[in-house]
Amino acid sequence: MRTVTTLLLSPLCTVALTAQCFVATGGTSAGLVAVGTDPVDDEGLSAPIDMLFGPAGFPMAGAVGPLTHAVVDSNGALYLTSGGAAVGRVGFGPFDLTDLRGQVGDSPRIAPLWGDLEGTTAGWAVNVDTSVAGRFQVTWIDVEEYTSGAPQFSFSATLYATGQIEFAYGALPPLPNANFYIVAGVSIGNGVGTGLEISTDLTTGPNSGALGLLFQDFDGAVPSVADKTILLLPNGTGGFSSVVSCQAGAHTAYGAGCYGESVYQYFADAAVASAALQGNALLLVPTGTGYVTTWVPGAAAAFYVAPAAGAVSLPITNDGNTVITPTIALPVPGGAAAQLTIEHNGIVVLGALPNHLFDWTPTPAELLAAPNAGFYSWHDYNDAEPGSGTIKQEERLVGAERVLFVTWDGVENYSTPTAVNPSTIQFQLNLTTGVVTYVWLSVDDDSTSIDGSAHLVGYTGPGVGSDPGPFPFAVAGSTVTIDTFRALTLRAGPSPVIGSGGSSNLITWTLDDMPDFAPPSGQRLGILFFSLQSAPGIDLGFVGVPGCQVYLNSLDAQAPISVSGSSSQGLSFNVPPPLAPGFSFYAQGIALIPVGSYPGGLNTLGLLTSNGVRTTF
After folding, report:
1. β 290-296/280-286 pair status
2. How far apart, in whole angstroms, are the C-alpha atoms of residue 75 and residue 115?
3. Cα gap 249→227, rounded to integer Å
4. Whole-angstrom distance, CA of residue 113 vs CA of residue 184
5. Domain ranges, ordered by start, for the chain
6. 564: buried, middle or exposed (CB in 10 Å: 19+, 13-18, 0-12)?
7. Residue 338 carries which DSSP code?
């Protein structure tokens, strides 16, 4: 095993970048005019602008052309046309993937950062630059999410006569999707794809194959594209691939430590969710530090308890919430919840504050970022629709145990157009034992809603957590242990900088939330591993550590960490020369625990793994 210094003397350190990063200067006003009654900085749209690519226009495989002109939108997108108006322009930013795909006949659309944006400062501008032959550039300067109150951010989209598209970004704040959908990507329009496509991190080199659609959703954290330049390249088969052509030095976390405090499964539309959920049940049995989940197929009819005549209907509030106070506080890991917030879109939150108020578009990122613990069967329900059933709550004695039943009793689902399509689901919260049961008696399969019809089921602990990835609940007998403690986490700082002589500044890699190796001694033992290559995540179940992932493709160097008392410990060193911009390497940590002690005796090797960290100069 090599030392850290030996690893970093690798010839791979000579990799260099050639592109320039984001520049906000240049160009002239795009000439936006206000659309409707909203001001131009909120809902502005340009006339068709000649991109000066000649009569053949911008090459885009699969799109109806020639694409000679662009219509620029204040909300961070542009539409390509043959000289006419944009077909299928979406006001107030996109609502979901459907808007990026467009409908049949809609214009191609290019979206470096498409959302409900506005400009509130004197420096706000949307500029167009055609001064370089074969290049058409649009820059959005000092925009912000609608009603967010800052901070402002800037970005650009550049189209080249070769068919390449470049997105360049300055510093970006967290984008919490407070209003609608926020996305970056390219679409040939015309209803491309099926609507079941999933977001892909544009910084990881994705390839859309033959599909003229490639995109990344932004929701919650600082987007991975911040301070980077992304090239979208025609892949020769009708789609696009992406590559990072410029980025600031950074430490980027990827993957997740085990065992995480959240577990979820995401269903892209109601048809998929109905097939997986209807008629089934899910048990969450408390362990003291978390829950063990068990999928029980075909059990919904047997588990379901129909609301009694005295069951109380919650106040009708589409996308709102109601706080209830059970007669007994619900036992939860680490304490008890005296109050519960019932979010009417299928969520029971521990405590008196909601997690996703007036949010009808479920995403895993929002679940992971939720401030409060909660149980999720999240979907766009509408108890305010005429003819809908109500959400009911009641407590009953089941033997010697008191159980709180919260039932979406024939509550309507959104559809386009509005149709009769109720669902009946139930949360059973045992106030005596803390066991929570999800029952999906009937789950509507109508996926026509223009806002999307996704379902997100699972549980999240309190506070922002790491992403363990989706867990396939809907498999007979599947189980997973989840815990409310923080997973083992690796971080690094400060940002890597190449100094004089080609070496780096002093950088510290820190493991947080290291467990006690021999409770209650306070002794903590760990190892940091370094590699020149990353891995997508290899589950260690085959060596007795199920649920823990390896994110390194090779173990090229290691360094031990030992500490008494503190659960955080770091390792600091200067990366030696020669270093060049673009060089990256990867790190991951492990921490030792008593063999077979956790979770539930399943970990027979006695270790936990952290997330990975990519360090890029």
Report:
1. antiparallel
2. 6
3. 9
4. 5
5. 22-247, 262-483, 487-616
6. exposed
7. S
Q: How far is CA 497 from the centre of its chain?
A: 29
Residue type, 345: N
Summarised one tens digit per residue, pLDDT across range 385-442 is 999 999 999 999 999 999 999 999 999 999 999 999 999 999 999 999 999 999 999 9
**Bridge partner list, 481:** 292
Q: Which residues contact 91 (CB under 8 A, 6 or more apart)?
A: 35, 36, 43
> Exposed, middle or buried: residue 55 (CB in 10 Å: 0-12, 13-18, 19+)?
exposed
Q: What is the DSSP string of 364-419?
A: HHHHHT-SS-EEEEE--B-TTSTT---EEEEEEEETTEEEEEEEEEEEEB--SS--
> What pairs with residue 129 in β-bridges?
137
Distance separating alpha carbons of residues 64 and 130, to the nearest angstrom: 23
pLDDT, tens only, 182-205: 899 999 999 999 999 999 999 988
Q: Rounded to whole angstroms, what are the CA distances from 363 to 3, 173, 177, 264? A: 42, 19, 10, 10
* Cis before 520? omega within 30: yes
**Token output for 353:** 């504050």
Fold for the domain defined by 487-616:
Immunoglobulin-like (2.60.40)
Ramachandran bin of 169, using left for φ above 0, alpha for ψ from -120 to 50, beta for the remaining angles = beta
Three-state secondary-structure class, residue 313: strand
Q: Give the integer Cα–Cα distance in Å for 276 and 509.
A: 42
- Answer whether 216's CB lies under 8 Å from 188's CB: no
Phi-psi region of 220 (alpha: psi -120 to 50; beta: other; left: phi over 0): left
Q: How far apart are CA 232 and CA 234, in angstroms?
A: 7
Pairing relationship of beta strands 347-350 and 183-187 according to DSSP bridges:
unpaired
pTM: 0.47
Residues paired with residue 574 on neighbouring β-strands, in sequence order: 506
Distance CA 127, CA 360 (A): 34
- Cα(410)–Cα(414) distance, integer angstroms: 13
